[in-house]
Design brief:
This protein has eight helices and ten strands. It is of the alpha+beta class. The protein folds into two domains: 131 residues, MutM-like, N-terminal (N-terminal domain of MutM-like DNA repair proteins), CATH 3.20.190.10; 124 residues, Helicase, Ruva Protein, domain 3 (Orthogonal Bundle), CATH 1.10.8.50. The strands form three sheets. The protein has a four-stranded antiparallel sheet, with no helix packed on it. Strands 2-3-4-8 form a four-stranded antiparallel sheet, covered by helices on one side. A two-stranded antiparallel sheet has the order 9-10. Strand 2 and strand 3 form a beta hairpin. The longest helix has 22 residues. InterPro entries: FPG_cat, FPG_N, H2TH_FPG, Ribosomal_uS13-like_H2TH, Znf_DNA_glyclase/AP_lyase, Znf_FPG/IleRS. Keywords: DNA damage, DNA repair, DNA-binding, Glycosidase, Hydrolase, Lyase, Metal-binding, Multifunctional enzyme, Zinc, Zinc-finger.
Length: 286
C-alpha cells in the first residue's frame, strides 16, 4: 500500500506534470472505483489543474476548485503516460480502473491488482467532503507537529503502539510498512502499550517518526512514478524482510501474522531478545 512518502512523491511528480494543464477527459472504467456522482467526472473536463495536494494517503487534484481525490488502497497505483493510446480502453478489462487525459495527449491511469477492489475516487467541491479525509489526524511531517503534539495524542490512547501509529484518525499517512520501520528505529516493541510510554520513549518515538518519514520522502523525491514501489522496498530495514539479518544488530528479522496482514520486527533491537507470540494463539508480549 502506498503510504505518506510514496503519496508525497506522487504529489511532487504530478505537480510538475499536471499543474497548468487542461483536463480533457476523466474516464471511469471499473464500476467500483467512483464513490461520488455529483458532480460527475465530466465536470472536470475543460478545467485546468491548479494544484496537487496530499492529505495523509489521499491524492487531491485541484482543477479550478473542483477536486479529484484518490485513495490508492492496498493494491492501487498511478501510472503516468507521456502519450495516452488514441483508442479508448474497454471497461472491465484488466486492472485499469480510471483514466485521466490532458490537452497535451499525456495523462495517467489508476490501476488496481488483485481481487479485493478498494481503490476509491471522489469528485468533490471540497476535499473535506471525502469521509476519509475529514477524519484524518495531523500530518506527522507538518511544520507544527512537535514532540508535545505527539505526546498529547498518545496520552489519551490505551492500546498498542503498532495500532496507534496506523490509525489514520490519530496520525495521517503511516501504514503497515512504515509503522514497522518507525518502531524498529525507535527500538520499541510493536505491542508496547501507549499508556506505558515514558518521556524518554516519547522522544525516541518522535525522532524515529519524523526521521524515518523524512528520509523516505527524500529518497523518493524525483523518482518516476513507475519506480516508486521498488524504491520503497529497497529502503525498508525490517518490513517485508522476515528471515533476513537486521541491518543494525544482525539478529534475524521475525514476523507476526494476522488474518490479512503481518508485521516484522527485530527481537534484539525491539523486544529485549524475546520473540513475540503470534497474537492468534497466545497473549502478546509487552
Amino acid at each position: 500500500m502506498p503510504e505518506l512518502p510514496e503519496v508525497e512523491a506522487l504529489r511532487d511528480f504530478l505537480t510538475g506534470h499536471l499543474v497548468g494543464r487542461e483536463v480533457t477527459r476523466v474516464l471511469p472504467l471499473a464500476v467500483h472505483v467512483l464513490k461520488t456522482y455529483d458532480p460527475p467526472p465530466s465536470a472536470l473536463q475543460g478545467r485546468t489543474v491548479t494544484a496537487v495536494h496530499r492529505h495523509g494517503k489521499f491524492l487531491d487534484l485541484d482543477a479550478e476548485g473542483l477536486h479529484l481525490v484518490t485513495h490508492l488502497a492496498r493494491a492501487g497505483w498511478l501510472r503516468w503516460r507521456d502519450r495516452l493510446p488514441e483508442t479508448p480502453p474497454r471497461p472491465g478489462k484488466g486492472p485499469l480502473a480510471l483514466r485521466v487525459a490532458l490537452d497535451t495527449g499525456a495523462g495517467f491511469d489508476l490501476t488496481e491488482a488483485g481481487t479485493q477492489k478498494r481503490l476509491a475516487v471522489y469528485v468533490v467541491r471540497e476535499a473535506a467532503e471525502v469521509p476519509g479525509v475529514a477524519r484524518l489526524g495531523p500530518d506527522p511531517l507538518a511544520a507544527d507537529f512537535d514532540e508535545a503534539r505527539l505526546a498529547g495524542l498518545l496520552a489519551g490512547e490505551r492500546r498498542q503502539l503498532k495500532g496507534a501509529l496506523r490509525d489514520q484518525g490519530l496520525l495521517a499517512g503511516v501504514g503497515n510498512a512504515y509503522s514497522d520501520e518507525i518502531l524498529h528505529a525507535a527500538r520499541m516493541s510493536p505491542f508496547k502499550p501507549t499508556a506505558s510510554l515514558t518521556p524518554e520513549e516519547i522522544h525516541r518515538l518522535y525522532e524515529a517518526l519524523r526521521g524515518t518519514l523524512t528520509e523516505a520522502v527524500e529518497r523518493s523525491r524525483g523518482v518516476a512514478a513507475g519506480r516508486l514501489k521498488a524504491e520503497k522496498k529497497s529502503g525498508l530495514r525490517v518490513h517485508g524482510r522476515t528471515g533476513e539479518p537486521c541491518p543494525v544488530c544482525g539478529d534475524t528479522v521475525r514476523e507476526v501474522s494476522f488474518s490479512d496482514s503481518s508485521l516484522q520486527y527485530c527481537p534484539t533491537c525491539q523486544t529485549g531478545g524475546r520473540p513475540l507470540a503470534d497474537r492468534r494463539l497466545s497473549r502478546l508480549l509487552k
